[in-house]
Amino acid sequence: GAGVSQSPSNKVTEKGKDVELRCDPISGHTALYWYRQSLGQGLEFLIYFQGNSAPDKSGLPSDRFSAERTGGSVSTLTIQRTQQEDSAVYLCASSLFRGRNSPLHFGNGTRLTVT
Amino acid sequence: AQRVTQPEKLLSVFKGAPVELKCNYSYSGSPELFWYVQYSRQRLQLLLRHISRESIKGFTADLNKGETSFHLKKPFAQEEDSAMYYCALHNAGNMLTFGGGTRLMVKP
Q1: CB B82 within 8 A of CB B74
Q2: CA quadruple A41, A2, B53, B104: dihedral, nearest 10
Q3: Would the CB atoms of A45 and B51 count as touching at under 8 Å?
Q4: Which residues, 6 or more positions from A10, have their beta carbon under 8 angstroms from its beta carbon?
Q5: Would you state the torsion angle of the CA atoms of residues B84, A40, A20, A2, taken in this order, to the nearest 10 degrees?
Q6: Chain A partners of B40 at a C-beta cutoff of 8 Å?
Q7: Using CB atoms within 10 A as the burial measure, which of A11, B8, B32, B72 is most buried?
Q8: pLDDT tens, position by position, B39-86
């Protein structure tokens, strides 16, 4: 595709429900990142994938959060038993290769609202 | 641990005025610094990176290792520059850390 695609674009869920967010990176991009953008909080790193493996899971806020990537392409971020503080915009980004000279390309994000 | 600090959450200037968005970092290694920008209703995108030493949309940023800063500057702000700006540091382990962001408002 032309860019990083995220779905859904908006998600409203009730507290306690599970949600799954999807990211389709740019074709051929080996690195994939998830960030969370909260009002007034900037961008918070969640997890990073190189291929299908996640060498750095340090940013996941709690064990309710998990992520996987299959086929070196699509990634899903799952939040179990959602809480109101999980409300935020979840951004996915991909880069061509692992390395500091490979800039990130971001999706439009999924706006999650937990009521 | 690495950290990126953008001390101003909001910066408001008039059209034609100079603008400087501040960014300070802490990192023990050799940093790779970037500025990303998010215009209204658009996705976050790369604006410039320090290794390129380029000027994008009239913006420049110089890495000052002595002051551990990477401030973003433009001599004459335009209304279309109004956006959210994020400074980011890429470490050797391929982790990209963002600052808290600065919202730039350019008034007519």
Answers
A1: no
A2: -40
A3: no
A4: A110, A111, A113
A5: 0
A6: none
A7: B72
A8: 998 999 999 988 787 888 999 998 998 999 999 999 999 999 999 999
